């Protein structure tokens, strides 16, 4: 179960399904680091950039769920800068439900099916940007029922 959770965290990081948040307006003059943000400036949080920042993630373009696991593998720890559901007062109210759904759907599928693609199919991380990022070329998946 910790590895499954780590896998979900890593999918959310590397794919950044919501890559940019909605626009926000600074309600007062603000300073973030060395940047001065005057009142009424429109700002947009770039999740993709944080999720691929090499200062936060060693080898950020590598898909590696083990980066969340404790040394003995008994826990998956999500760092505070992984925020696929955003943060603050207007963060996603569906976060708890979405985690339950992601976990249960994934586990139910991999317990019942061996999921494959046609031999020779190239898989890639290439995506189309919109409100959410979607795979540019979704391959045909083959679901082979596992007989227990
Ligand atoms: C993987 C699944 C999901 C992801 C990655 C996601 C992500 C997000 C993000 C990034 C926001 C913007 C938060 C902000 O403005 O700072 C948001 C807002 C919102 N989400 Fe989700 N969400 C997911 C699933 C859900 C589900 C299952 C529900 C409802 C059952 C939901 C309901 C909402 C609503 C109502 C808002 C608007 C909140 C507001 O503006 O006050 N989301 N979501």
TrEMBL record:
The keyword Signal does not apply. Its cofactor is heme. Transmembrane segments: none annotated. Heme binds at residue 92. One of its GO terms (cellular component) is cytoplasm. InterPro entries: Cyt_P450 (IPR001128), Cyt_P450_CS (IPR017972), Cyt_P450_E_grp-I (IPR002401), Cyt_P450_sf (IPR036396), Cytochrome_P450_fam2 (IPR050182). Gene3D superfamilies: Cytochrome P450. Belongs to the cytochrome P450 family. This is Cytochrome P450. It comes from Tetranychus urticae. The gene is 107365164.
């Amino acid at each position: 179960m910790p590895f499954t959770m780590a896998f979900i965290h890593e999918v959310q990081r590397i794919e950044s399904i919501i890559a940019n948040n909605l626009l926000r307006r600074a309600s007062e003059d603000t300073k973030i680091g060395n940047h001065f943000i005057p009142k009424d400036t429109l700002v947009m949080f770039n999740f993709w950039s944080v999720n691929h920042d090499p200062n936060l993630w060693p080898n950020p373009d590598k898909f590696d769920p083990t980066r969340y696991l404790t040394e003995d593998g008994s826990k998956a720890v999500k760092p505070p800068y992984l925020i696929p559901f955003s943060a603050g007062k207007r963060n996603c109210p569906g976060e708890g439900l979405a985690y339950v759904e992601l976990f249960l759907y994934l586990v139910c599928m991999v317990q019942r099916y061996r999921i494959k693609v046609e031999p020779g199919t190239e898989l890639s991380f290439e995506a189309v940007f919109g409100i959410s990022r979607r795979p540019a070329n979704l391959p045909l998946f083959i679901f082979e029922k596992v007989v227990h």
